[in-house]
Structures are given as structure tokens and as C-alpha cells.
Amino acid sequence: MSETSPVQRRPSGELEASVLAALWAAEGPLSPADVQSALGGRLARTTVTTILTRLHDKGAVSRSRAGRGFAYSPIQDSAGLTARRMRSELDKQDDRGTALARFVSQLTSEDEQVLRSLLEGAEGAEGGAPEGPEAGPQPRPGAGP
């Protein structure tokens, strides 16, 4: 038996997060080679291409033809992607009320106050959108993810 330690695996989602961060920092669409370069060349181009393809399949990035390959752009900013993931997880639940109750019960007091403010703003705003620039664009009630 070998005395060497096993290869350390990256935490789940770390590579996707790194690729998304590179796309968010870019001023336009990036090819896999551009993303590889933005990440310091520490990943193989095939790995970057695989990650980009998976992100495209998940609906996190869009792609357009660029020569013989594709150029990729993020569909949403970081906050939008988080909201989309939260909605996706909620949509998987049969008992949404319980899932929401457990989520809210685990919020910090600061997060709870932000949520209360957003909900109060949604009640008074036409179309259900919170007011103020910090709220950002909000989907209409009943709209898809």
C-alpha cells in the first residue's frame, strides 16, 4: 500500500464557479481558450470546454458561433443565478410551505430583515416588484425561472 496521500478533489461546483467568475468579469463573450487564459491556464482547454458545455446545458450560459467553435456569455449575474438555483430547488419540493418555512427559520436576523423589506415593498409596488435600485430586476409573479 502506498504512503502517498490520495489526489485532492475540488469541492463540487468549484470549477463551474471559477468559469462563471471569468465570464462575469469579461466585457463580452469568451471562447474556451479565452476562459482558460482568464483562469491562468491551470485547466486543460478540454476541461474548460466540458464545464462550459455543462453550464450551457444547465441554462447558466448562452453560446454563439465563433469560427469553428463557440463563444460563451453568462445569462445572469451571480445573484440572478443564485435566485434561479433556489427557485429550482423549491420547484422540486412537494411541500413548498415546509421548505420555505425551514429556509426562513435558518436565516440570520439581518437576512430576515432584508426579506421582510423586500416582501413589504412587493406588497405596495404594482406588479409585485420591490422598489429601489438595490432590488434589481425582478420576475413577474407566475413567470418561469
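(ticket continues) Second input and output from the same batch:
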Amino acid sequence: MDTHNAEARSSVETRSEGDVRIVVMAGEFDMDNVAGLRTAMDPAAAGVARFVLDVAGVTFVDSTALSVMLQPALDRPVVLAGTVPSRLARLLELTGADLAFATAPSVAEGTVMTVPPREG
């Protein structure tokens, strides 16, 4: 597959608000185009206490991209903000990954909401 075309199928934008990294995802994410998402979701990112993912524009996520989304959730909150598209919601439910993410109706709320600790 042509990597350039793979990258054109998705976009990732990031910004920070204090110690919160906001990641806006749009399009299709699979093993051929997760580089930008991997950079944005770096679990070793210094000074990031929470990731807020705006997933409203996501049309497809494969297991590779889901793994990238889950990595930071091992030691800090990852909040899915906005309306989670039905295909992504189904993938999260089928894999049990829905338990790893908090959810918020908007990015603004996701940046300030209290996220309960995950049950281990």
C-alpha cells in the first residue's frame, strides 16, 4: 500500500492545555498510518497528565491503532471526547477496551472532569 495515500486517509492534530494533551483524530487509522497518532499518544510524554481524544471524526480504527490509543492508559487517564462513532464504540466493546477509557461529551469537559481510578 502507498504510505502517502494511507496518511491522506487520516489526520491527527494536537494541542496542550496545561498538563492535558488534546488529540483530534479524523479519518481511518490502521497499521499503515499510525505514525502521527503514535507520536501524539506517546506514553512517555513529559508533563502530560491526561490525554483527551476527540474521536468524533474517526471512521475506522484497526487493532494497531487501538493499541496506540491504549498505551498511555496504562498509567494515566485517556478520555474519549465527543460522540464516539458506532464502529469505534463496537470495537471498544468487543475488545473490552471500553473499560480503559473515560468518556466525556466534549473536549472541554474531558479536560477538566474528574476521572475515577481504574479498577485493577
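Agent notes: The longest strand covers residues 50-61. The CA atoms of residues 81 and 104 lie 5 Å apart. Closing as not reproducible unless the customer responds.
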